[in-house]
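Worked problem 6 (solution included).
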Amino acid sequence: MLSVQRKERLLEMLATEGRVVAKEAAVELAVSEDSIRRDLRELADAGLCIRVYGGAVPVPEADAPEHARRSIATDSKQRIARAAVSLISAGSTIVLDAGTTTLAMAKMLPHGADLTVITPSPAVALAALEHSRARVLLVGGELSRHSAVTGGALALEAISHLGADAFFLGVTGIDPVHGLTTGELDDAVTKRALAARSTDTYVLASAEKVGAVSRFPVLDLAAVAGVVFDPDDESDVAVSAWADALRAAAPEVGAGSPT
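Solution. The predicted structure is:
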């Protein structure tokens, strides 16, 4: 079988089964595991899959550029945003990550002037400024064209001098084995820095992210205080199974409420 034919079959496996296990694919296609790994590496380099230990998984929808993500699961993100806002305590300092769900949160914030909002996202900062009376601190740094979030050395320097009660984290992959992941290396570094300066971290888990794995690790599930699911999604059998698996991976992780 030619390499191009193997790659087509591997992409079919990703689409139908949600993963490729190199050892199993090698048996099915009657080639060596090294050949499968090389094919997967080339597919990953072309942006067509994400390599993980033992094989590969599909590229998550949530890894699309920020402007393209605005139309994905919009109703679900609104419900998650409402659930997350309910976790905000009066007079607290919070960090809102970049992303479409945190943008929705910024438009629902409590209107008291005693709230402080820190964010690396200009869009989230402007929404918080427009829709609340909160004090808004924008983290400086180089602005990513892909994610529209600040990062780099300047951002890390600023973050090192900040502190927050709660960090509402946006990632592109939430998996019980691979943990929390995202599609950009600099973004992963910024997220870890913000989590390190926050007392509690809550992960925003819209359906397209649950069970997905992106290229760069952010945090283990055990490092977060809670995962905020869409209440409607949890009634779905598939998503509910993922939620149960996430809790099994990190028992202290709750769905939409502090633990």
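Discussion: Residues 3-17 form the longest helix (15 residues).
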